[in-house]
Amino acid sequence: MTATDYLPLNRRRFESNRGTIPGDSVPWELDDKETGLRWARDQGYRTTEFLRRASAREAVEDGLARWGKVVLKQPNSHSHHGVYMLERTDTGALFDHLRLRRVPDLDDMPIHGQPPPYWLAEQWVDSGMPGAPIPPDYKIFCFRGRISHIWQVDRVVAPARLATFDGAFFPLELGRHFTAPSTRLQRGWHRLPIHARAMLEMARTLSLRMDMAFVRIDCFDGPDGPLVGEITFASGLEDKGGFLPSPMLASIIDDALHGRGVRAASGFDIDLDRFWSMPHPARDFTSDAHELRVIQTGALSGDRQYPGAARRRLRPGPGAEVLELSLRTIAILNGEHRGAYDLQEWLAEPRGVIRSPARREEFRSIAREFHAARAHNVWHARRAAELTAEVVMGDNG
Question: Are residues 111 and 135 in the same domain?
Fold first, then answer.
């Protein structure tokens, strides 16, 4: 199986390649939404609250009575198809937040594909962000405990916004690490979950316990920790070419699929296995809930204040240097190039699980351009000259 054949690892392709990939049996029963959630809960992890009913009407009415607003799912469908985020308006009508329209008749809900054997109602997870009622969905691509990449899908707008990370929650760049030709997506902004490392640990552990060559764990950054939203063996948008990895990311996926070591797709020299195995706090950020909500809200719109504000509230400890480097990089991607000088200085010496100054020259170049463009100011001129001199000395050395 080649790297491109990984996309998707669906029933047909997996069965046709039986025996060629480590792990040659798929527990397809876990592809059922309710069964997958129950299994994750049995493993000791939190999931969204859910209930099963024979009809869409029963599921919605019982869900609204229990939670006030509800996510209705057709369990034999994938992606956002057959998913409705419903809330009752002041007039008593049901409003679907995903499609921004009223639902006329619960007894005649659109069905995608075959009629479902039941309907699933799930509790609507609080995003924790004012003005963003729909929480970002994190889709973690796992290969026996190793993570190649992560999607962050923001459905507050349409088309949905996609931001992608590698397995250490480092930002990947559209056009550099992947392309997304689908009209169903637009570029998203990177937001580190408040419970980032707990989310990685949860996905890795479930993947290891499943002992599968590939599984995707979809989860939310809940107010009290990560929540499993779904377990699936389909890769999603790759099915129709909606997400195309770069050759480097494709080779990382291929290595992960075949049980070989995985490197960070971002290009930073991170000891991933050591980082993943480190003890971690339940929550990666300090400060009270109100502050964090305001800060995180800005993240989804590319607010240049977000990375610095989040970095100042990082919880210190082993492995925190990885998240700090991620936030510093997010700042540059958000256009805050004034931080490039400090970032390249920060990369000068290995620290923690960051083993070498990989990509330092890239950010030094950004810093040179930033300060050279402002050389009419004496301070900027000196900094540009300093950075240029370092390059000359390096070339002569």
Answer: no
- Cβ-contact 265, 148 below 8 angstroms: yes
**Residue type at 164 in one-letter notation:** T
Q: Could you tell me the pTM of the whole model? A: 0.89
Cis amide linkage into residue 159, ω under 30° from 0: yes
Q: Is residue 303 part of a domain?
A: yes
Indicate whether 211 belongs to any domain: yes
pLDDT digits (tens, 9 = 90+) for 11-55: 333 333 333 444 445 566 677 888 889 999 999 999 999 999 999
Per the domain annotation, does 311 fall within a domain? yes
Could you give phi then psi for residue 388, rounded to 5 degrees? -65, -40
Terminal alpha carbon distance of the chain: 45
If one counts the domains in the chain, the total is 2
Contact 256, 239 (CB under 8 A): no
For residues 361 and 369, give the distance between their C-alpha atoms in angstroms, rounded to a whole number: 12
Give the Cα-Cα-Cα angle 381, 384, 387 (nearest 5 degrees).
Answer: 150
Q: Is 221 helix (H, G, I), strand (E, B) or coil?
A: strand
Angle subtended at Cα 193 by Cα 189 and Cα 195, rounded to the nearest 5 degrees: 175
DSSP string, 124-147: ----SSTT--SPPEEEEEEETTEE
- Give dist(CA 41, CA 329) in Å, integer: 35
The token duo for 224 is 């009290």
Do 209 and 80 belong to one domain? no
The alpha-carbon radius of gyration of the chain (Å, integer) is 22
| Predicted confidence (pLDDT) per residue in 256-291, tens digit | 988 888 999 999 999 999 999 999 999 999 988 889
3-state class of 341 per DSSP?
Answer: helix
Please state, in angstroms and rounded to a whole number, the distance separating the CA atoms of residues 391 and 65. Answer: 66
Separation of CA 386 from chain center: 38
Give the number of other CB atoms < 10 A from CB of residue 341: 20
Same domain as 163, residue 275: yes
Q: What is the pLDDT of residue 84?
A: 92
Domain end among 294, 314, 335: 335
Its domain, for residue 195, covers 1-29+130-335
Residue 256 lies in a domain: yes
Residues 209 and 329 in one domain: yes
